Amino acid sequence: MVEFAPLWVPWEHRLQTLVVPQWVGSIHCYVVFIGLLFTRFWIISILYAVWWYLDRAKPWQGSRHIDVLRCWAVWKHMKDYFPISLVKTAELDPSRNYLAGYHPHGIAAVGAFTNLCTDGTGFPSLFPGIRSHLMMLNLWFWAPVFRDYIIIGGMVAADKESVFHILSKEGGGNLLAIIVGVVQEALDARSGGYKLVLLNRKGFIRLALMHGYWEEGSGFNWRLARIVFWWEDSTDEYTSYFGRKSLNPLTVKILCW
Question: Where does the source fall among the domains of life (predicted)?
């Protein structure tokens, strides 16, 4: 039986509830794309298909940051719905590039998306000069319209080519986050706790070693960075801790430079 929200629920809460489905529901844009092909508006899908073809390599080339869209007010409402917060515990040097691990995955990686692909929790103000990217399964970039939706947030394909493109950029100021446990970890998501999938998930460390830098006289100068995200049962809040203070026995060590 469907239970509707009481009429006296504050408008702010209703708006927050409305924002979350628009994010999840955007995945199904392919239905509209296919449906238009069988209407008199079929030209819209054809023109989009041409654009899609011309832009097909973008997820492997650093994606497309559009700051105006990342600053939408809807992300603030989405952040407040859960709520989600980002706690800074370490500085990031904008002259360097970073590879960061994010865990656990959760059901929809909503914490990773909100923190790193939008300005909802204030990432740009906490880490000025750092442009964040988040790796995502390649198959999502084959979903029409939705692919553009996530590309503007800085999401890139989960492929070595994407890593090479971002971490090889001169001048620094780029952070590439990878959700280490990926789908397997998402399937193990449970309310009130989390299970990390770390065994045989060391490929990103090899990539960090390949893109590390050498400082004369001191060997490799590694900096430790990580993002740990969990549900705090006592407050029902999602909190992301970035930096050294997030260390715990379950935390995978991520090499950064």
Answer: Eukaryota
pLDDT at 109 (0 to 100)? 78
d(CA 73, CA 140): 24
Q: Which residue has the higher pLDDT, 189 or 233?
A: 189
**Core vs surface per residue 77-90: b (16+ CB within 10 A) or e:** bbbebbbbbbebeb
Please state, in angstroms and rounded to a whole number, the distance separating the CA atoms of residues 194 and 181: 11
Rg of the chain on CA atoms, in Å:
19
- Asked if residue 229 lies in contact with residue 82, where contact means CB atoms within 8 angstroms, the answer is no
Residue 193 β-bridge partners: 190
When pLDDT is averaged across residues 76-98 and rounded to a whole number, the result is 83
d(CA 148, CA 78): 19
User: What predicted TM-score, i.e. pTM, was given to this entire model?
Assistant: 0.79
CB 117 within 8 A of CB 189: no
Per DSSP (E only), the strands in the chain are 84-88, 98-103, 131-136, 155-157, 174-179, 214-215, 219-220, 223-224, 226-232, 237-242, 255-256
Contacts of 46-53 with CB under 8 Å at 24 or more apart are: 48/144, 48/145, 49/144, 52/144, 52/147
Residue 197 identity (one-letter amino acid) = V
- Torsion, Cα of 225, 231, 236, 237 (10° steps): 20
Helix (H, G, I), strand (E, B) or coil at 75: helix
What is the percent of the chain with per-residue pLDDT over 70, rounded to a whole number? Answer: 74
175 vs 257: which has the higher pLDDT? 175
